[in-house]
Every structure is written in C-alpha cells, then in structure tokens.
Amino acid sequence: MPCNACVSLVNYYVRIGVACMQMTASHLPYTRNGLKFFTKRGGLTSGDVENICDRAAHKYVARKTGVGGGGRGTPPVVMRVDLMSAYAQHLRDIIKQRVAHPTHYDTPLRGFKVVVNAGNGCGGFFTWDVLEKLGADTTGSLHLEPDGRFPNHIPNPEDATAMSLTRGAVLAQGADLGVVFDTDVDRSGVVDAGGAAINGDRLIALMSAIVLGEHPGTMVVTDARASDGLTRFVESRGGRHCLYRVGYRNVIDKGVQLNADGVETHLMMETTGHGALKENYFLDDGAYMVVKIIIEMVRMKLAGVEGGVGSLIRDLQEPAESVLLRMDVMGEPKDAKERATHAVEAFKNYIQEDKLFGWVLDDCGDCSVAEGCLMDTNNDPIDVDAHMYRAKLYDENQRAVGMVHIRQSVHNPNIALNMQSYAPGGCKSMAKDLLERFLLASGLNGFLDISQVEKFVQ
What's the rounded Cα separation, in Å, for the pair 180 and 199? Predict the structure, then answer.
C-alpha cells in the first residue's frame, strides 16, 4: 500500500526543541510526495528550503568527487522512536488539563459522541489514540485505515463528498461533533450536532470566537478570499482582521511577522482549512485545531450552554453566493508563470485606468498591506510567490454587488477567480462583466482558456 503522508507530529517535535521533516503528498496522488521542514520557529519558508536543497546538492557533489570535505565521516546514530504515541499523549494531556473535568478528569469526553472521517489518510489515530482513550464514543467513524489510493473520496475538508458523508454519519449517530481531516492532518473541518458543515469562513469564525475568548483584541490573519461577513464577525467580538495573500505559508508567516512587530496575533487561518496558532508554535496542525474545538465543546456543556459549538457562529453573515472558476494558461509550460502574471496585472491596470467602470481595488485589511494583497509596505516584506488582487464591483447606485479575488496559481498553470456576491445572481453579473469588458476586450482569451467563465454566464 503506498504511503501517502505521515501525521502532523511536528507539534511534538518542536515542543521538545528539535527540528523535524514530514513526507507528504497531502490530498494529491501518492506519486507527488514532497518534504516539509519545521523548527521551533515554525515551518520553513521557500527560501529556507531552497538553501537546504543547495547545501544537500553541494554535499552530494562533494561526496561523489571527493572534493570539498564531503567525506562520509562518522556515521549518524539512528534511533527508532514511537513518536505517534507521544504525540497522541500530548493531545490527550492538553484536553484533560484545559477541560479539568470536575468528576472524571482522565475521561473528559465520556458521554460525548464524535465521528471522525479520516478519508483513508492518516487521521485515524485521532479516533483510537485520542478520542476513545478520553472516553468518547466514536461509533460511525469513517475511512480510518490509511490508503493512499483514496478509494472513498478525496481526504479534504473542502470536498463535498467528504463533508456530505460526515454530515450523514453525525445525524445518523446523534453525534455531538463530526471531524474531517485531510490526508496529512494539517487541515481539518468539523460538522456540528445539527449537521451543519463548518469549513471555510465558518471554521475561521468558529476558531476566532474561541481564540478571542482567550485573547481579547487579538489580530486574526486570513487569506484575502475571506468574506466581508467574516471581517464583521471578528470585529464584533473585539478582534481585528488582517486579510493577506492566498497561500497558507503566506498567512502564517504574516502572523509571525506581526507578532515580531508587536501586534498580538494568535490565529492565522486560510479558507482551505489550514490553521496555525501562536500557542502551538505557528504550526498548521489540523489535529490541534480540532482539540481546541473539542475543549470548547466540553466547556460549553459543563457550563450548561445549549446549541454546541455551532451556536458560536450563528450571527456570521455569509455571502449570498460563492463561486470558484479557473482559467488554464495555454501554450508552452515554461511561459505559463509569466503569462499568468501578465493577466493578473492587466486586471489591476484595467481598473486603475477606468476601463472597468464600477470596479474598485480593495486594500485587503489594516496590517500594512497595499497593492491589493500583492506586497508589504513595512521594512521587512515577505516575498511574493504569486500575483493576486481583490476588487469589488458597485452598481450604478453605488451599491456593492460583490467581490472577486483573482490570482495566479503557485503550483499549476492556471488563474483562479474566487467570486462572492451579496445578492442572488451577483456572481453571474460579475463574471459577465469580467468576460465582456476585460477578458475579451483585453485579448487575454488568446492564451487563457476562458471556457469555464463562458459556461457560467450562459
């Protein structure tokens, strides 16, 4: 059976003060495994990883040629350690300590039903090594055995099938909570007792409510695809919302940077389910996120609060519509990045040159971010890995129709259009406007496959 990923043990590694490496393909095919590196400061940046690769290549050449001190020297000491058990124990201890159940301290989840959908990734351990050992009933849990071929569905909290199956299991079992993990457990989503899927903006809102209860006034960093309703939700609870560039490392690194600049920032989350906490060494650890939610669930029950964790986000105002469309960059792969950059920059220029009446570039937040999520204006900017902008469309009466976030993909030769509208039909109206007055008028359809946009507006 192909090994697709290893569970997010990085929490434990960095807690004991060492560096670590994780092999994972996440929810991609098992043939696309890669390496993630972590230290006590959190995950390494692209520049750090490039430096490691350069040093490894230098040592490899030196060893082959015998030049440059590349001899083998003393062989390293290799120890086999059961870190899975240590990590699971670490999570159990956190739940026990923070719940501090007055009658059964060691089994604080006794009387709770929690369904886990691991999607045949590596999240099954959370069921038997964390939840069950704390007393939870996990009857009805799904796809716990690892299988990198993913025979049931993509292990992804954004996947409609994954969420639908989990909702069904929660309702069938009368569970208090459902949990959906991605393959390597660095992302997660949940389902509340009423069967409501909590992912995307909902998950960020839930985590914001929990974290702001512990750290009043903290900054919450998200990617710029988050909705205006989420911003209002965070601010209504006394927090501040920084919208930043898409990419979970961008979001997390921005949080690290803000803390270094003296801006208290305890939560960083991308709308895909990646989330990191200051208290957890800025690691994108989906299991730790679920632990925080479970602790809040038990605390609410002990306090006699009705409605479960879903009640914490009842006042979140969500967009009337949300649509994601992609435009493939045609032609030679070597030209894709340059062409995508050109297309995204053309969007900005069209707005600034008043060629797109009613469209306004959005500044995306209050944390020294300018140029539509593109660059930092502080003294220590984070490198741009992909060009992107966020803009809003207003009708002839100056009423906001909705928002679009346009970005070039870091990993694939395409451009993503994330659209949110404030009224039914708004996304189609925005897409039609972009198609006729930008994509066709600019000639970008000469190298962009705009068929998804055309099909959507029909």
Answer: 9
